[in-house]
Amino acid sequence: MNIEQWVINWFAENADVEKDELINNIESNYFHEGWIDSFKFMSLIEDIEDKFDIAFDNEEFQNRNFAVLKGLIEIISSKLNGQV
Predict the structure, then answer these.
(1) pLDDT in tens, 29-84
(2) Looking at the 3D structure of the chain, how many domains does it have?
(3) Which of 23, 30, 54, 60 has the fewest CB atoms within 10 Å of its CB?
């Protein structure tokens, strides 16, 4: 399963949103859309870090792209590519 599929599946399983809506709104801010709250965000981060064996730093959390599905996918991908 690639990163995009994993992220979309996570949101589909943990938020009240369908996969089609996620795919069609991949450039949307998931907080503004109300897909997750701060508690779910902590679960998302923990699950990403466990799944992909990465750790985020405070600077990454400040990045506006972090709150957008597509941006989050790109950040995960770049971290994985940087570790190779």
Answers:
(1) 999 999 999 999 999 999 999 999 999 998 888 999 999 999 999 999 999 988 54
(2) 1
(3) 23
CATH number, domain with residue 65? 1.10.1200.10
Letter for the amino acid at 35? W
Work out whether the CA dihedral 56, 1, 81, 72 comes out positive or negative.
negative
Domain hosting 72: range is: 3-83
15: left (phi over 0), alpha (psi -120 to 50) or beta: beta
C-beta separation of 15 from 35 below 8 A: yes
Query: Measured between alpha carbons, how far is 41 from 32 in angstroms, rounded to an integer?
Result: 13
Helix 69-83 and helix 38-52, axial crossing angle in degrees, nearest 10 = 30
Q: What is the pTM of this model?
A: 0.90
36: tokens are 């997750």
